[in-house]
Amino acid sequence: MASRFSIIIPAFNEAGYLPRLLESIRLASLAFPQGAVEIIVSDNSSTDDTAVIARSAGCKIAQVAKRSIAAARNGGAAVASGEIFCFIDADSALNPDTFSQIDEAMRNTEIIVGATGVYLERWSAGLIIMYSMMIPFVWLTGLDTGVVFCRRDDFEVVGGYDESMLLAEDVDFLYKLKRLGWSRGQRFRRLKGVKALGSTRKFDEHGDWHYFTLLTKVISYMFRVRFRIDPQQDIPEITRYWYHPNR
To answer: Per the confidence metrics, is the pTM higher than 0.85?
Structure first.
């Protein structure tokens, strides 16, 4: 029997964070009948107890070998049975009303895709400046992050996430859905009052100001991809950022 929601979690060595997310999903699921929310942990070749924790919590597990967040998300979607796909990072946590608001939004045929937005788990001068820089981007593009949700059929129409992209695959995915929505008279929906927790662990590890250095590397990579210049020189460092062995 198909579920109403499939929440898909890409995970590489997330044993330390996954229990918090799974508990928040459990609490958010209480407003719906048992089985309405299907949890899929897309295990991206973890070497810790990620899969053990997921299995003990009753999650469905998708094993994905390719080192790519886009591949992990697509791998989870490939085994999902839900009508609505929801994507969330493993180091996040959900607001208890998340599924209720997503359900309401997806019952509106004028909505094609949406997101909850995020709030940071701590603040500092560097994080405030970084967050302030992101706000104009969010409003100018009409996009957001957090729990990203769409209908299964629309996910399949746009072909899911682009696995050739090492980063910004989530922005590309939202743009593809928005373009599809424009052709149908549908729009993006930013939910209110249900922001997901945004982890600051990368800032804890690399420093609260590291994002500005990283941003130059991201821009370089995206420029090379956009203009079909070989981006290989940027790949090792970007890959290590997401898949370093100490995690």
So the answer is: yes
